[in-house]
Amino acid sequence: xxxxxxxxxxxxxxxxxxxxxxxxxxxxxxxxxxxxxxxxxxxxxxxxxxxxxxxxxxxxxxxxxxxxxxxxxxxxxxxxxxxxxxxxxxxxxxxxxxxxxxxxxxxxxxxxxxxxxxxxxxxxxxxxxxxxxxxxxxxxxxxxxxxxxxxxxxxxxxxxxxxxxxxxxxxxxxxxxxxxxxxxxxxxxxxxxxxxxxxxxxxxxxxxxxxxxxxxxxxxxxxxxxxxxxxxxxxxxxxxxxxxxxxxxxxxxxxxxxxxxxxxxxxxxxxxxxxxxxxxxxxxxxxxxxxxxxxxxxxxxxxxxxxxxxxxxxxxxxxxx
Length: 321
Ligand SMILES: [Mg+2]
Prior knowledge:
Blueprint: H1 7-11, E1 21-23, E2 31-32, E3 39-48, H2 59-77, E4 80-90, H3 95-112, E5 115-123, E6 127-136, E7 152-156, H4 161-170, H5 181-193, H6 199-208, E8 212-215, H7 219-230, E9 233-236, H8 245-250, H9 253-262, E10 268-273, H10 278-287, E11 292-299, H11 304-308, H12 310-315
Parallel strand pairs: 4-5
Antiparallel strand pairs: 1-2, 3-6, 4-6, 7-10, 7-11, 8-10, 9-11
Bound molecules: magnesium ion.
Residues 73, 76, 214, 216 line the site of magnesium ion.
């Protein structure tokens, strides 16, 4: 498994903590056991330097985010994240970068309770690929295609922070170098660089929801994936879209909405709950102090969402179907 620099063995060979790992890093393949009555959920995501994160992003943040965005896909499926593999392409052997990246990745692995079970390294433009594996019972799996007429549409957390963070990271951040806005600035950057996969929320959501997706490309685009797969439409009450105090302090409402609808990298969950299950769901979430917000409902008019936001869709070059 180790590549030309033997990097996996040197920087990424942690003992497996969780269940199901018979053989981890160091052989030609890992050996895993999936729990009885469960299915294996698998997803892969690649981060390219300068495309998926600014080139000056701290390596520890890159390591943490590379795993978080994959764990987020498990949360969106209603699956428990268990194991991951890492494919690392680097232009050079940079010890400081590798130590930072490894520390961030390990932190995320500990945060989410997942084990690194193998990997590969190559030389080239900086690219990080993580493949995540999780376990889910067939009944709990949250498919995009499962939204039903009348379902209430919810999101976890707040939207738009990461897009605002990206604008700040790419722009002149010295404008917030001091004063009260500095804390809001830092918050949005943190949301961009250290997204939190909603694994805790997912454990409740999967007991109630029909369909679910994680918001990686902006609310509108990810909602569209659900609507297309479920062959239905939606009405979104834009006044109900949750913004953080940081976002609404830095930007006027129109800009907050634009970031939430068409920005990316929030990694909140968007999901649909049958109307008669909403009370129980909201109670279960609030008992664990987990935030969620109803923002609309599912309709049988597949064109509805398009008509409502046509100006924003046009402005961002959004392609439907
Ligand atoms: Mg996803």
